[in-house]
Amino acid sequence: MSALLSAPKNTKTGKRDQMLLILLYDSAIRVSELLSLDVRSINLKAAIPYIRVYGKGDKERIVAITDMTASHLKEYMKIYHPCDEADCPLIYTVIKGHKDRMSVGNVERIIKKYAEQIRPDHPNLPKSCYPHMVRRTRATNLYQDGTELELISRILGHSSTETTRIYATPSVEMMRKAMETGRLATDEKQEWLDDEAEMARLCGLR
Questions:
Q1: Active-site residue 167, yes or no?
Q2: 119 is catalytic
Q3: Higher-confidence residue: 165 or 2?
Q4: DSSP string of the chain?
Q5: What CATH topology corresponds to 2-127?
């Protein structure tokens, strides 16, 4: 994932593509939610930068973003939104001189493009790379880093933690720690009476 996010070149289009990939991963939002963002949806001046997302059922939620993502967004805004047009789509394509929202198909092509670029150095990369893979990877990474499932569920915009459980894939390190927690101890102290007659009496057998 790190290689994928670093793949775009330092060009105007490359900065857009990198911002798109980083925002998609960092926020773990759906591709439809990403493309529905307007300039007004981004708040980079808050103490903790965040985006305002409208998810399924038109439910609104706030998703915090990292300072690194905020930095990439600021660079992107300087290039693609120098006039700070609040109602303009955050990510757009220009068709016949008119700014319109980028399509899901375009985002899919961007991800596949950079996935193919890094594939020679990362042969274990999934054969099919798509937007939801980025969201799923972020959710799994959060879980493996120890983030509570309920918080991950809120970040993803799920109405139930049961939906989020499909991303709760334990890492080898998590499994190792779990096994160590339940390992058999060899230095336990005897907690029962070493007196058969007294034990029988306490248990009502005599």
A1: yes
A2: no
A3: 2
A4: -HHHHH-S-SSHHHHHHHHHHHHHHHH---HHHHHT-BGGGEE-SSSS-EEEEE-GGG-EEEEE--HHHHHHHHHHHHHH-TT--TTSBSSEEEETTEEEEPPHHHHHHHHHHHHHHHGGG-TTS-SS--HHHHHHHHHHHHHHTT--HHHHHHHHT-S-HHHHGGG----HHHHHHHHHHTPPPS-PPP-S-S-HHHHHHHTT--
A5: hpI Integrase; Chain A (1.10.443)
